[in-house]
Amino acid sequence: MSRAAASAAAPNYNELLKKTEHYDKDERYMAISDLCEALKRNAAAAEAAKGEGGGGGGGGSGGGPTTATPYHAHVDAQTERRICAAVLSLLDDSSNDVQTVAVKTLGVLLVTVQEEQAVEIADRLCSLVLDPDKSDLRDVYAIGLKTLVETVPGEMGNVVSQRLIGRLVEGIHANSAAGGGAGGGARGGRRGGGGGGGGVAKAKVAADDKASEEIVLACLHVLTDLLARFGPSSASVAGRREPLLDVALSQLASPRPAVRKKAGTAVGVLAAVVPDPLLRRLVERLLDRIDRAEGLGKSGRRRARGTRPDASAGGGGGGDAPGDLAGADVRSLIRTTCAVAGSAGHRLGQDHVDRIVPIFLRFCDPDDAASGDDEEEEGADSDEEMEDAEGDVPHGMTEEAAAAMRVELRESCFAGFESFVLRCPALVRPHLDQIVRSSLAYMRYDPNYSYGDEDDGGEDAVDEDEEEEEEEEFSEEEYSDDDDMSDEEDDENWKVRRSAIRTLAAVVEATKHDPSRLWVAEYAWRRNSAQKTTVAGALVSRFKEREENCRVDIIECFARLLSYTVAAASSGVLTLAAADDGPNSSPSAAGTVVVDLRSNVSAAIVRASERQLSAKKGGERSKSSAIALLSTLCLAPGGIGGKDQIASVFTHAKTILDVDDDARLRRHVSANSKSLKLEALCLVRIMLSCKNHDPVHVKEALLPILLPEICKCVKEDWYKIISEALRVLVEVPNLLVQAEATQEEMDNVARALYDAIEPRLAEHDLDQEIKECALSASASMLSVLHASLSAEEKNRIFELLLERLKNETTRIAAIKTLSKIGEAARSNEDLDLSPIMNETLCQLALLLRQQSRGLKQASLECLDILVLCLGSGDGIDMDEGLFDSVLKDLGGIIEERDLHICHLSLSASNSILKARPSTGPLVKIHILPAALTLSKSPVLQDPALSSLLALLGEMITSKAITFDELQKMLVEMVGNKSGKQVISNLAECIATIAAASTATKQNSFIKSTIRAIEESGDNNSQTTQLNLLVSGDFGRKVDLSSMPGVAEGVQEVYNQSFNSSNEDIKHAAALSLGRASVGAIDAFLPVILKALEQSRGKKQYLLLTSLREFIHCYRETEGSDLSSSVSLILPHLEKNCENDEEGVRSMVAECLGSLACLEPAMILPVLKELATKETPKKVAVRWTVGSAVKFAIGGHISPTELAPFMPTFLGLLQEDDLGVKNIALLMVYSAVHHTPQLVVGLMREQILPQIYELAQLNMERKIDLGPFKHTVDDALPLRKAALSVFATCLEKCPSSLDIPAFMPVIAKALADVEDVQLQTHQIILSMCARQPIPLVAAADSFVAPLEKTVNKKKGQKTGTELERVYEWIKSGLRVMIAISKLDGAMNSRKFAEFAERINNSSKHQPFLNAVHDER
């Protein structure tokens, strides 16, 4: 049975091949389709068998019916040849459908055939492509050949390339001679001697020319694909790069435009794989020819005459530049140069860019950019002179063709500028101003059209009357009837404008990390005018562009610039200031640029955007872009503007949202489209939620203009519009509170919101997003407008909320809604939750038993909030049995494996105890055992510990348990093996409950604690540590000096403990002394300082530990003011800055850093003086200063206070001592990580030179250890710290780095020791996503160190050492894989060969598989 089934499943190739010759085209179509599917299955099965390492069995001779071989059995060689022949023959089929499937089958077939068959197919297809008599089917053959190149297995690439390249080149040569150059003379002879048969001869020549052109195009097309796929790795291509380059360049002189264009593309692909010397020669040959061309326009030609090489150079180039480009037109040369820049721009040198940019500027000189609005000043060109200025019309070319040529030339030049700016921003930086000026000028290049606006103020204010006239004129002229534009139908100057805009967009993208120059640098951009403008101002003034494609690009370019500017401001690179910034506004860091939006930009942006929104026939894309721009503007200081601007924007939004009558809908279909309506709602939501608008202005515009339309949108059909409208309604109640709305306004809004929200909240058959948004809207409405809702309306909302809480799909959203309402009820007694309290708590208790952590977390947060609404009285009648159930469930989830859930459970328990003290016995039964178990967990910390302390304190306060009983339980938690963290946590618990007890109990407790310390001594170290820490934590909460004799007794036991033989006891005493000082500064701090002055060695270190703990704990005290004590502390710290012990200096640095955060005005000048003071021990002092500044930055010192001192502190990088250099690098790392604005302005001058130097510093020395010598590298910490700074700068402030200059450092670090290599690997992986272009340019330099890493030998290593080697190898492979995926990386032959060697290496396969499995 199984044999029969297998036989039935197997395709009968003989039958299928026979049907491919059937006379019926349908039969042939079905046969080739079935054959294609069979081959697909065969290929898939073969791949699966290969993956399993199996391989399948061998079948009979020819796959006859007597065998039971399944359908995916290997196809024998004879059948394979027959299949190939049949597929090739069907490429000539008369049916287009059959031809299409045949080409598709060819792609499947080439995956599985033998190399011999693949070569035969390639030969056959190539012959068919080159056959001049196969014109009708040449496209099909060319597609087949392209399919072969794209699908043939990579291992066959070399032999296929070797077979095809020669024939393709020969075909190009042969048909180029027939169609151009010399062939032109032959055709002329035939035409001259044709006599009476001239017409036939001309027709034959035309046909021959067409066939030749098709062959050359097909050859170039296939050759381009071949080079793109196999160029970097094929030896056949490597050996013929120069001949291939010559033949491609020769086609740039072809008389056929399509051939020239395709040849330029081929040269661009080839440029990516040629070596650097050949690339240099290629660029030189192109530039030499372009350099001889006249520019466009008067200024362009003058520029050309001023920069053209001496005419005596003649043809130039000698053997390196044969005359094959002599006939090439400038368009083709420029287009080819752009293609080269696009594929290999990162490999061009500075000298190339310095030549290319001035040459390109001849063809797009800003002085030649004419516009219909340009003024004709005295001496300006007349119309005739303007036409002459554009350049002479070439012989035999019409005016229209000449105009099209100029458009194409300029478009190509700007495409080149765009490529240079994006691919090699560092090289193009010296020319960036020229490129920007040219782009600005040609962004308005429209000589055939006048906008009727002579004063493009851009950033200048415009009077309202002028603005209205301008809007009227703009809307009439820009969107006039098509008949009025009939003269401009053939005007293609918009292509030049579009390419100039894209260049500006590239500039914006290249400067996105610091776009300040685009706001402040001014350029002359108008012909015959001295008026200047910034890039930002020019973009805004060009929103009036009449061509929608250009207009949308302009708006999007400016929106991107504004977005990057806001991001740069948030990171401290620049400062955004509004016009109303007062003297108390935060000052900007030194050296940052201040961009003032409100005074000169925001108003112009809003006006220009409103014109787009109000245009009667404006395109929907323009409106969408304008809305996106206004949304971005909301994020900037000042937002959209004042009252008038907000009202105007809301009015335009209303026209988009208004869909009342069908007639109007038919007139404004595009304006009222669903997507545009959705974007308008998003804009309104952003305007309501952002903090950059005056809420009163927003309210006054929203209520009468837009609120009714938003409520109508909630009744729409499309779920996205409904959801977004509900999100807008979420923001409305909060806006009313901020704007201090009247009660009448609140009542009206509450009525409108209820009518809109309640139906959506009640419906069940809705999208999940609508349900969640309706819940959020109801929460916002109830929280703020509950007083304006009737009791029936509130009860209806509560009833619906309970329904949603019981529904599995909406319960999390309902829980969040109830949490928000509960928060509002805690601060508003008139919001009564009693109707739903019992049932809600019951449902939440049930949800605590669910396995879902997210659901459990949301339920605990809601429970914590709601129980506090109960109050301590009996205002709400509660089921007391419910608390028993809830507390039992809470106790069951208090486990150390999830500390966040523990924190929430303990917090909820504490809230229940506060709200209902009568639940104390239940808390003691259900919660306390779990809490005590948690208290001895070594992982207990942060919020969970705080919640535990709060609960224990509340249990004492509410008398749920006595102090003595709870203290005894906590003391019993200390075991013989309890660690420091456990003892510290238990001590804090005991101190907390002691602080919550009565004064009498506190007095007796602290005295008994002192006695216990004196009695236990060193005999029971854990008990002594516990009591010491308890006394310190208790003293932090209670003033010990207020208890007679206690402060002196505590000081005595601390002093005795300093002499203990147990180090843990000493440390505990030091911490306790510091903590006890917080509650009684006058009693303890002078004692510490006096002892510090008299002590040395270990005791000095312990006292500094006490001082550090005191300062640290005091910082955590609310309303702390230590200014009166700083003058007492500072001299002791200054004295110990030069201590010989590094541990002491480290403690001093921590103290100084913490004090600097508390009192920067007093401490920073002292640190500055110490950093520059010349003393015999200046190295130790400066190390301490650097460490103190590092701690201060990590402690979040005010950046504005620290910024003036940073240049002095960064001078530590110049010190000779390696330790000082290292601590200075760590200081820089901390600054970049926490507050990058501190160092951004100082990077290039003070930091980067040292980073580059120290990242490569090597100071190895050998230590003679007798039997062997040990090598020590003293500079290793410096290299690691320097790389850490660079990695952090890549993330926080990449604009401050010169990344290409750092690539040699990265390459050297890849060959460093293991730790540095692994660190560098992570940097490269990060750069692959953020800065890929410099990596691609430096890929070749990474090959040698990476290859050494991935071929690391394991030697005799075993266990963890062997695992470390394996991880090292995998880290190198991750880098190789990541770089190989970057665009252009595999065009580097050296890197491509390295990647191919590793991928084909059997010993690396397990590692590669492991790396791929990680993804």
Q: How would you explain this protein's 3D organization?
A:
The protein is an all-alpha fold. Helix content is 68%, strand content 2%. The chain contains 68 helices and six strands. The strands form three sheets. Strands 1-2 form a two-stranded antiparallel sheet. A two-stranded parallel sheet has the order 3-4. β1 and β2 (532-533) form a beta hairpin. The chain is globular. The two termini are 43 Å apart.
Quick structural gist:
By secondary structure, this protein is an all-alpha fold.
Low confidence ranges:
1-8, 53-73, 178-196, 310-323, 376-389, 454-490, 581-590, 661-671
- Write down how many β-strands occur, each being a DSSP E stretch of 2 or more residues: 6
Specify the overall morphology: globular
Helical coverage, percent range? 55-70%
Strand order of the largest sheet: 1-2
Radius of gyration: 40 Å
- The end-to-end distance, rounded to whole angstroms, is 43 Å
**Major β-sheet, in short?**
2 strands, antiparallel
Beta-strand percentage?
under 5%
Q: Structural class, please?
A: mainly alpha
Q: Mean pLDDT, rounded to whole units?
A: 81
Number of helices: 68
